[in-house]
Amino acid sequence: MVQDDRFFDEIEGMPVSSRQSYYDREVRRIASYAYNHSKAMRSIFDAACIKPGDIRSVKDLEKVPVTPKGEIRRLQKEYQPFGGLLACPVGKLARIFVSPGPIYDVEGRNRSVAEAKAFYAMGFRPGDVVINAFSYHFVRAGWSMDEGLEKLGCVIIPAGVGNTELQVQVMHDLKVKGFAGTPSFLMALIQKAESMGYDFRKDFELRLAYLGAERLTPSSRRVFEEDYGISTGDSYGTAELGQLAYSCSQRAGLHVPEEVFVEIVDPATGEQMPRGELGEVVATSFDRTFPVLRVGTGDLSFFDDEPCRCGRTSNRLVKIAGRVTDSVKVRGIFVHPKEVEGLVDSMTQVSNFHMIVSRPSYRDELTVKLELSCDINEQKNVCETLQNRFQDICRIKIDTIEIVPSGTLARDNKRLTDTRNWD
Predict the structure, then answer these.
(1) Which percentage of the chain shows pLDDT scores above 90?
(2) Quick one: pLDDT at residue 1?
(3) What is the CATH number of domain 1-325?
(4) How far apart, in whole angstroms, are the C-alpha atoms of residue 195 and residue 315?
(5) What are the structural domain ranges in the chain?
(6) Whole-model pTM above 0.85?
(7) Sign of the dihedral through C-alpha 323, 328, 331, 334
(8) Taking the CB of residue 49, how many other CB atoms lie within 10 A of it?
């Protein structure tokens, strides 16, 4: 049993019966607040012919239509910049983040301690020196991790992504104990250290890793833990809602923090699925800045019914088992085929394209195959233009652009193939 303190309190360990009452109360509160302060949520309620008083329990959430992440994108384009979802004056915000689209994700000044609780659950403690290798540029991840570590009382090195040789030197000189970032970047740092002549396990004191934005595969976890002595924990969240689940020391699924309510629903009907059955992850945040009820993440998962030996009584997501839609996360960023179609449509020289995501080692790789209707002298310029525009819009770089003969690619709506193996 984890000892009580400010990052493991009576809320995390409350009896299951008390947890039900807690969530019913929070759902009632946020339904009323969202209806009265968010124009978009009021419209959603009115269109469904429901009032806040109709939402008395978590079961009543089924009356509220699921709002897909794509709908948030549409609302923001139609009603710029926040889609009618912001429930406070802009001047009350702490930060505005930018996701591909662009989508404007906001952060209020009264932040929860969900990220701090996640770090604590994974073994981080006050005073630990931690290098934060999540990006601080436009996106939420770096700042959210930074705030969680600060609230926990850790010493933060705000490294971001890149500069691998410098990060290796900093980790060595400052005896860094913890890492926050993607699995692929942690592996890149280890490989860089070894290429610089270090014995990573002997020469470094890194013993904890909070990993996110990419899947942590069983094989990668074994390498980190068995070969390098790094205890790993993973997390799950979205840019719109922040932290949705995190692992604990038992690593028996991902705990859902008390700052959100997560449902597993039938993607076709929005009805809550019986425990243990696969469905879409749908989340409601209790944050008053951006109070969106029932955001459909597009991810598939299910709940574990077995009590966790860590003492936390929250629902636990067993794993993310796939996507409802055809959007795919590549190196921590979702690639939306429809967005790429819009980009390609503006390039008259491209007659057809197909994207392939693979993972030959520890890093996602993106290949784009092109059929071009231009002569060989123009092909290089077309590829450079595509690379630059793709990176501007999707925020990641294409690893390989391959030109194929006309008629090679299928003429259908499937624009992206994911060949990664997560076993």
Answers:
(1) 60
(2) 37
(3) 3.40.50.12780
(4) 43
(5) 1-325, 333-418
(6) no
(7) negative
(8) 8
